[in-house]
Records
---
Amino acid sequence: MAKNRFAFFRGAIRPIEEAKISVMTSGFNYGTGVFEGIRAFWNAEEQELFVFRMREHYLRLLRSARVLLMDLPYSADDLGQITLELLRREGYREDVYIRPIAYKSSEEIGVRLHNLECDLAIFAVPFQAYLPEGGIRAMVSSWRRVEDNAIPARAKITGAYVNSALAKTEAYLAGFDEAIVLNEDGQVAEGSAENLFLVREGTLITPPITANILEGITRDTVIALARDLGIPVVERPVDRTELYLAEEVFLTGTAAGLAPVVEIDRRRIGAGKPGPIFTRLRDLYERLVRGKEPRYRAWCTPVYSAPAR
Ligand code: PY5
């Protein structure tokens, strides 16, 4: 089985062993990189691998890069073509996680963004479930989400993931599956690597993009699906205790997919099992990412066959 044999690195697809950086690399020393997480889903009936919302992921990567003053010589379409070529070379016939990363590549001392070279790499690995299935037990983290005026959360900056790692590991060491992180205003931001939704009186609620969250593509997908299904959706600030009183809570992300939260701070959420609105959205999501819902097929880029036009 083909597995992680190639990477796009320094302008070409090469054997993965050649895709190595120096310890002197600026981005490694200071966390001055930006990245994406993209998934491709295997559809066994069609014998096809579909990359989900690839263009949106690459547009976000380019926006993140702008925040770090990186001038990348690629368009979103260029990056999409490179990704398809890489996946074809690897020949995956299973679900895949794709990791593009752009970083300050100069090998010199001095923390800054300006007058440094940057580089971009892409690699892919077989996908493995990111969160336990069946229902997540979460805690509200004692760590606060990075502020827009400290490290902007809406850019997917490598260094900012120290914040996620602190929260995730605190939760893990305390016996929970995942952390829910509040922002400096004390309101709900998101999970350590997922956006958050709750349901109150049948309305789907999620913190706004000004709450120091990543502007998640799965979040955007869920909002679109909910509107299509006639489920009311509101983006507004969310208090911590609303989590405890919600009928349903779930997390969304490329790696996590749609993941139900059944317990928060040792309080049972709703009936303590995945709720009906979550289940409807999750079932639809699981089908559409594999290209099984014609209405959403435009979000799925086939790897092995040319897209139907
Ligand atoms: N919030 C944070 C902090 C994230 O890191 C992510 C994605 C999300 C929200 C959800 O965004 P999206 O729906 O666009 O994926 N996290 C990455 C992922 O691939 C990295 C996980 C290690 O899911």
---
Amino acid sequence: MSDTRETAKRIGAEEIERQKQFCAKIRKMNEGRPGGPPLAYTQTYGCQQNVADSQRLMGMLREMGCGFTQDARAADIIVINTCAIRENAEKKVFGVVGQLVHAKEKNPDLTICLCGCMAQQEVVANKIKQSYRHVDLVFGPQALWKFPELLYGVYTEKKRIFSIADEHGSIAEGLPVVRESGVKAWVSIMYGCNNFCSYCIVPYVRGRERSREASDILAEVRGLVEEGYREITLLGQNVNSYGKDLDTPMDFADLLREIDKIPGDYLIRFMTSHPKDAGQKLFETMAACSHVAKQLHLPVQSGCSRVLKAMNRGYTREQYLEKVRMAREAMPEIVLTSDIIIGFPGETEEEAMETVSLIEEVRYDALFTFIYSPRPGTPAAKMPDPASRAEKQVWFDKLLDAQNRISGELHRAYVGRTVRVLVDGESGDEAWPLSSRTHGGRLVHLKGGRELIGRYVEARVTDSNTWALFGEAL
Ligand code: 5AD
Ligand code: SF4
């Protein structure tokens, strides 16, 4: 139907099988190793999609016979999965990769791989090619599924490999996966983005929108529920575009309804929803589906309609506020969060304060806030940007002050209440040893024993601060 369908190549089962054979060949090479199985160290930057991608890379490494280490110095293979969303993220990676030159000097057999969104950018790949000669393998998110073949090439041809072909993207089913916790799992439902917000690099590095078949998603979720996973987060750059490229008509709300029919004690979360495509049908479906968490991450980016237009977001301040009203009407208890960019090129102080006034009006439970970072190749990077960094910092601090106050107030309102939480792990804090999440996704540090991990419990909230709640399991 659409051009997405034509360009989104579905990787055939025989191709995935071929990759498994490369895993087997590498495993054979690894079996004879004098020091035991090689150890892999993976480091992931950026969003949950990258976390999910790294779990696939680890699945493939495990099939190659690798063990895992948390210590980069003990590793035989290092995989760095990178993020390109802001300049800071890129700088950090260049710092880390630069340092690895010493590790390679000490251990010339060390294999260093760089993948993810940074790797997909030609400028970055060229810089690695020329100035970071200790990196052996570079591949973008589109080439993730052929990691075994690429790595086999590095091992057998003894040469550096760069795989960043400008592909629109593909869908690969059946890749192995290593999930880190037995409680929470990530499930990608679609890849790529077609929105081209003027500041954003994602559509250039992750290709066009492409949806997984609903049957594949349902099978994966069913399997996870059967394995005992309690919280499953559906991932996509814009989950509300789900299904637009599929032959069988199905949208995201339909998908939620289908997933909700899977029996079991589990919660479904999802991110990210683009406000232009979120609407009544989605909100009503969320309200009606008992497995769907009453939580919505609905990034507004700016509270000023002029800036929203320049960002190419496809909605005005008023239209956004109307969506929030609709969501709250359908689900009065909904937990709302958002992303904000301060200092978009040409933004004035007055316009930035419109964003502050919007957050005062919405009263989000929490915010992810960023100062605009120019991304070469995006339209915004070419726009005049007269405000200084210092000015933007002042606006940013005002936004943070307002949000911290609001989060603090909303959190205080939980104190004394009993809430149902999923205990998802340890917090690392002796006084409140467990970490847990409310239905709406708010963090609760809990007093209680480790045996509660993986269980839903009733908790009494006894304290709160700006970032979290504190309580005891009943
Ligand atoms: N500069 C600052 N923040 C950005 N984001 C995306 N691109 C940029 C950029 N160039 C933010 C948006 C998005 C979140 C994932 O990152 O708020 O929602
Ligand atoms: Fe980037 Fe906009 Fe796509 Fe989100 S919707 S990934 S901000 S282009």
---
Amino acid sequence: MTDSANPIREIGVALLGLGNVGAGVIKLLEENAAAIEARLGARLNVRAIAVRAFDKRRRVEVDASLLTTDIEGTLARPDVDIVCELIGGTTDARTAVMTAIAHGRHVVTANKALLAEHGREVFAAAEAAGVDVYYEAAVCGGVPIIRVLREGLASDRVEHIHGIVNGTSNYILSTMTATGRGFADVLAEAQALGYAEADPTLDVGGGDAAHKLAVLVGLCFGTAVDVHAISTEGIDTVEPIDFRSAERFGYVVKGLVIARDHGHAIEARVHPTLVPKNWLLADVPGAKNALYVHSYALGASMYYGAGAGMLPTAMAVVSDMIEISRNMLARAAGARAMARPFAQGQRPLLPLDDIRSRYYLRLAVVDEAGVLGRIMTILGSHGISIAQVVQDESAAADGAATTHIFVITHEAREGNLRSALREIDGLPVVQRPTVVLRIAGAGNNGNAGKQ
Ligand code: HSE
């Protein structure tokens, strides 16, 4: 309740971009206006929406007088307190965010690419200008994982994380697992259903997940990493035969981001992974996202939900607006009020050769006496210990004389495995480069990633 003597405070908001997420933000601000006002004790008022073109079809009706193509003018408006960047990409969005900060505006962004590539610059400028930059929607869409890492675990120390942070890839892999169909076939269907973009490269190639991982590493370990140096493998190379054999060994193929703090360096990688069937991550279906966090005091915790979509993502964006508004009302706004990502500067990434993992190998070999023995001898000479071996006659490779050998190793150093495989793949009896997939979880390394 307000009266004319105490008019409710209005907080001015400008949206940059009115695509799916922008439309969701408008919808949520309208539909939940009363609840938001009651919770905040103030009103979020959209003052301008900057768009590229006026005549585009939108998923929401807006007052035409709010629309403008003048981004500069919008950022300079004195009645705008919070700028919500929903342009995407790292060029125009970077200029807009840096200009907004220079004008003393608080910023909400869903842009993981911008934060992964220019996060230090953005947060340094925000700190100098005394403004907030919030980005809950940048990782796992509507799942409030940024708040969990920034606030919920503020007194804890994250040791390692395993996550499914790209819904498109998870949808494709889940469908391949359930149906036995190939990647290209399932991708085409996902595109027809609107689960995958016309150009799916960023999603299925792992780039989107690497951006999100860089943001998570900043929060979990207080350090920036070079996102372009994160080892990133897409899901497009996994074949139906690997799904079947993973299943036989007790695993499900998932696209994971994995990060671990080694002190002097950060381990961070993105790749298709064999996940033990008894892990919660193995059961994450369709386009859903999930993050498993292992921290010193809490131990294991899991966060799960919609990683994309109009309303889930908009929900995260509007919650950020509310939090910034609360900071403003409490006169606590400014980057110092936030847990500062990247606070400890930049630490190097652990070279991929130095990571330790268990491995799944699929070797296409000539089916004759002594072949298996030679391969095992080479693996042994590089310190690779074998956990399981299966030769599957029904899985003949290129012809009757060629067969597949499937190997599960104990935990090993990746550099040793690569050296062994260079020798193995050079043998005349080996028909094609060996397929290698990493296995998540405990080897002889305690409870790494166990859930
Ligand atoms: N394209 C992303 C995904 C959502 O498939 O998860 C936005 O980051």
